[in-house]
Amino acid sequence: MKKVVVISTSMRPGSNSHQLAVQFAEGAKAAGHDVELISLRGKNIKFCIGCLSCQTTGACVFNDDVPAIMDSVLNADVVAWATPIYYYEMAGQMKTLIDRMNAMYPKDYRFRDIYLLTTAAEDEPNVPARAESGLQGWIDCFEKASLKAHLFCGGVGAAREIDGNPKLQAAFSLGNAL
To answer: What is the DSSP string of 88-122?
Structure first.
């Protein structure tokens, strides 16, 4: 049994990327894994101020929701990120969390497998490339980890427009195959 953390970064109710996250999580649960689905919606996540004190103390100077999220990620075997694509890039909330998890770099971590689940109104194949590249920059800081898969669902702009889309089953199958 693996510890799986799924981070849903959309702030919108009825988010299409959140629906992918839910299906990935449900697939992993059906396979018998211990799954934690974390939604950033409603979380208090401050912006990094670049003081780098986390590099010497191992903790951020801010007391918000990030330490608990970071602890979950550090202790996971699998981490899945779900984000809407805005202007050909990951959601700002995802980038803000990645920046704040700078305190993780000198710490030991369990995760090896990283997954990316993305949605966008646009449906061209190049749409998710920058979001994947941005996440790959974070993954590159953890030499034992790698991006195992990226599932993209384009052509879904309005809330819940993904309902009935075969990519939901693909997300379930991806989680179920862990």
So the answer is: TEE-HHHHHHHHHGGGGTTS-----EEEEEEEES-
For the chain, first and last CA: distance in Å? 9
pLDDT number for residue 8: 98
> Is CATH 3.40.50.360 the classification given to domain 3-176?
yes
Tell me, rounded to whole angstroms, the distance of Cα 79 from its chain centroid: 7
C-alpha R_g of the chain: 15
Give the model's pLDDT for residue 55: 86
Residue 164 pLDDT: 97
* Percent of the chain predicted with pLDDT > 70: 100
Closest Cα partner for 137 from 94, 175, 178? 94
**Domain extents in the chain:** 3-176
Tell how strand 113-120 and strand 78-86 pair up: parallel
Single-letter code of the amino acid located at 102: N
Mean pLDDT value across residues 106-122: 96
